[in-house]
Write the structure tokens for this entry.
Amino acid sequence: MRHKIRPLDIVAITADLPGKGLLRGQVGTVVETLAPGVFEVEFSDDRGRTYAQLAIPERQLLVLHYQPQQAA
């Protein structure tokens, strides 16, 4: 079963978004659910400065896990 994306989840993008200056694998934080399957994601540098914030469809996001998870 897939993890339902929620605000504050840490995600990585699964495709380059060249028009936004983002590359596959860049990590961001979900800040809001905009519509079913569409999330506002904020990308920040290692000093906490936001360098991009945009709406991204769920199909282009991978939720990252920092704790062990049970496979479904």
